[in-house]
Amino acid sequence: MKKNSENLPQNLFIILSGPTGTGKSSVALELAKIIPAEIINADSRQFYKETNVGTAKPSPEMLKTVPHHLYGFLSLKENFTVFDFKQVLEKLVPEIWKRKKAAILVGGSGLYIRVLLEGIFNFPEEKKERQKQLRKKLLGQCTEKLYEKLCQVDPDCASKIHPNDRIRIVRALEVWFMTGIPMSVWQKKAKPADFIKYARVKYWILHMERNKLYRLIDLRTEKMIESGWLEEVRDIIEAGLKEYLREKAPIGYIELCEFLEGKMDWAETVEIIKRRTRNYARRQLTWFRKEKNAEWIDITSKPAEEIVQDLYQKIQKSD
After folding, report:
1. Would you report the helix, strand and coil content of the chain in percent, each value rounded to 5?
2. Higher confidence at residue 221 or residue 125?
């Protein structure tokens, strides 16, 4: 179908999210072939240039088909927070609109989406150095102890965080220790990204029957391994970047590191990666069920062409 912008709502901001393995990147690309659009990455693991195979990053050919943003633009050594993400999109999305295109945000990192739609607390610049020192101290403690502390100081926030989600637990404790005010209180004062008030938002969560999703995850894991995932991990280790993987691209990369170190055999390594990826998809679904104003799209038995056509029809019916 030829691209047509005549019926395209102004300031269209499309969010395509859902659990890993649902083909979000392919759907976004096919949609961008129908409507004038640019694609923005919302999968934090795909920000880094060293992690390609194991994060299912779109191929170079896909990235060239239509403009893509925030893919492989950082080194694992660099930090890029949800607040940096929000700041970048504050400028990027209006620029896309000025080019008479829709902005399609695609990825499964729910927190990055929520920071745009609802906002989240950030530290003042003058406190950033103290934050780094505090984070280093907290990361030296086990996750169980950190979560116990969070339950004491901010039970409301703790109830919304998985006990094993070390990154978010540390973040919430940083807020408490630095301000004396629970993150749950700060979040009530947070504001959405500025461009949201001008946006025609379409928030779609792609999902499918659970067993089919798990089968696709297992098959994708095998395909990524066949495509050179282990070699990619070797390159990362040789570049001296292994220490950054645990925080920035943990699933699969850590297990393959342990395999290379002789801590696990190959069959065990592959099975653990599959299981942890399935568990990650389940946690994503739990997160997305709490999202406001999102429409769930069941793609269990639909080919990609039908999914895209359905979304195109929904755009045309926009108010």
Report:
1. 55, 10, 35
2. 221
**Tens of pLDDT along 25-73?**
999 999 999 999 999 999 999 999 999 999 999 999 999 999 999 999 9
Same domain, 165 and 247: no
One-letter amino acid at 305 equals E
**Residue labelled with tokens 């934090």:** 44
Contact 183, 176 (CB under 8 A): yes
245 and 170 in one domain? Answer: no
pLDDT at 124: 61
Give the total number of structural domains in the chain.
Answer: 2
Query: Is the residue at 165 inside a domain?
Result: yes
DSSP helix/strand/coil, 88 = helix
Query: What would the mean pLDDT of 133-159 be, rounded to a whole number?
Result: 92
- Note the pLDDT of residue 305: 85
Residue type, 50: E
Indicate whether 72 and 197 sit together in one domain.
yes
Question: How many helices and strands, by DSSP H and E, does the chain display?
Answer: 15, 6
pTM greater than 0.85 = no
Among 87, 146, 91, residue whose Cα is nearest residue 119:
87
Domain extent, residue 225, equals 12-118+191-316
E strands in 111-242: 200-207
Decide which of 121 and 274 is more confident: 274
- The DSSP-derived string for 232-248 is HHHHHHHTT-GGGHHHH
